[in-house]
Design goal:
The protein has 417 residues and is mainly beta. The protein has 3 domains: 133 residues, Immunoglobulin-like (Sandwich); 116 residues, Sandwich (Immunoglobulin-like); 96 residues, Immunoglobulin-like, CATH 2.60.40.10. It is built from 2 helices and 28 strands.
Length: 417
């Protein structure tokens, strides 16, 4: 009898060596192992406090023959005595299962049970512990937003949770969900609240894919800037899902501007006027901005845009420029600022020749000169003529009147010899 018992013990030791996993795991709590006869090996089923999510109740336990895990054995799980499933232990002796069970958030003392029914040389064992249900962890993920100054923006966020579907093989958990396999599942019909730089701007309800969309959010009051946490989405939670709030970047770009330069014209030696139209946002006038004007690459002055976006600079001299057409001869530049990008515009400068004097104008000039000289002459005495450098004019004497009589009428005086 002693020999057979010794042989039986040796055989049992060999079976245990092959059945038990190789990696030892420190015990945390003790279950109540069932001890059998001397030919039956006692087992321990350890079940820590069970934490789970609403609607996705997962239980796990550790079956071992001290101090090693017992592999390939079936463990049955129950909540409040209601079986929810079974699982086969891995090489570490861990068994894990998940099932949907109608429990709301709360702590349920002694509600979780795990049982090993025994098999061959191994005695049955069981364990009971508390079952704690917490709200299903959610993830509200705001999508990073890019926008343009003074325009509107659309906020988007997706609400999901992780549905546990399995256990990672050979995983030794350091926390209740560190070894689970989960898939991401969208949450439909929940309200997401949106915040712009900390201020609530509206809300939207998630669709079948878990997305909530809030369109036409105003950016008034915000400068062009990158706000690292400028966009926030928040889910307030309910009896089933836990609350979650997350932020993302809101990047506001400066407005694009354009500058339309008007072609300029003038005559050589004269002057011209320069004007340009400053716009943004697809054609809106941009007022009260300084525009720099150039004439053939030289700065000739600045002007400020009016309410219509037009800047005008008058009296720009064309002195020193030859007649001709200068492509891009006039330019305007807006240097930009925080909320508006810089821009420039150019146009053609046309310079015509100086006008030639007309014949009528020459006659008019000569007549005016003559009238001026006569006026001075009448006011000047002859003695001043030399001082005026005017030649003396001699007026001939008035001719004397004479008459011719016949010679017979003329008396002839006789002389004596």
């Amino acid at each position: 009898m002693t020999r057979s018992r010794g042989a039986l013990c040796l055989a049992s030791a060999l079976v245990i060596a092959f059945a038990i996993g190789s990696a030892p795991v420190a015990a945390r709590t003790s279950a109540s192992p069932a001890a059998g006869a001397s030919s039956v090996v006692a087992t321990t089923l350890e079940m820590p406090v069970q934490y789970s999510r609403v609607g996705n109740n997962c239980l796990h336990a550790w079956l071992r023959v001290e101090p090693y895990g017992l592999a390939d054995r079936t463990v049955h799980f129950a909540i409040f005595g209601v079986p929810i499933g079974s699982a086969t232990t891995d090489q570490y002796g861990y068994a894990f299962t998940c099932a949907v069970f109608p429990l709301s958030v709360g702590a349920y003392p002694g509600a979780a049970t795990a049982a090993f029914a025994g098999e061959g040389l191994f005695a049955p064992s069981s364990a009971t512990n508390d079952f704690v249900v917490v709200g299903q962890e959610t993830f509200v993920l705001p999508v990073a937003v890019g926008a343009v100054y003074l325009e509107t923006v659309t906020f988007r966020a997706r609400l999901t949770f992780d549905l546990v579907v399995g256990w990672i093989p050979f995983c030794v958990p350091t926390m209740w969900d560190s070894c689970v396999i989960a898939v991401t599942v969208p949450i439909e019909g929940r309200t997401i609240f949106f915040y712009r730089v900390g201020a609530l701007v509206g809300s939207a309800v998630t669709d079948a894919d878990g997305y909530a969309v809030l369109a036409d959010v105003s950016l008034n009051g915000l400068n062009a800037f990158q706000y690292p946490t400028g966009f926030t989405a928040a889910f307030k939670g309910d009896s089933y899902f836990a609350a979650d709030t997350r932020s993302n970047t809101l990047f506001i770009e400066p407005q694009t501007t354009s500058l339309l330069m008007t072609p300029a014209a003038g005559t050589a030696g004269g002057s011209t006027s320069l004007s340009a139209l400053l716009r943004f946002g697809g054609g809106l006038p941009l007022a009260d901005r300084l525009v720099v004007f150039y004439l053939n690459e030289m700065i000739v002055g600045t002007a400020t845009t009016g309410s219509n976006g037009v800047a005008r600079l008058d009296g720009v001299s064309l002195a020193g420029l030859d007649p001709g057409t200068y492509s891009g001869g006039v330019k305007a530049l807006f240097l930009g600022e925080l909320n508006f990008r810089p821009t420039a515009g150019a146009a053609t400068l046309t310079i015509g020749p100086a006008p030639a004097a007309s014949l009528a104008a020459n006659y008019a000039t000569a007549a005016q000169r003559d009238r001026s000289w006569l006026a001075r002459r009448s006011a000047t005495t002859e003695s001043e003529a030399g001082a005026l450098d005017v030649p003396n004019v001699v007026t001939p004497a008035k001719p004397q009147r004479t008459s011719v009589r016949p010679i017979a009428d003329v008396p002839i005086l006789a002389t004596s010899t």
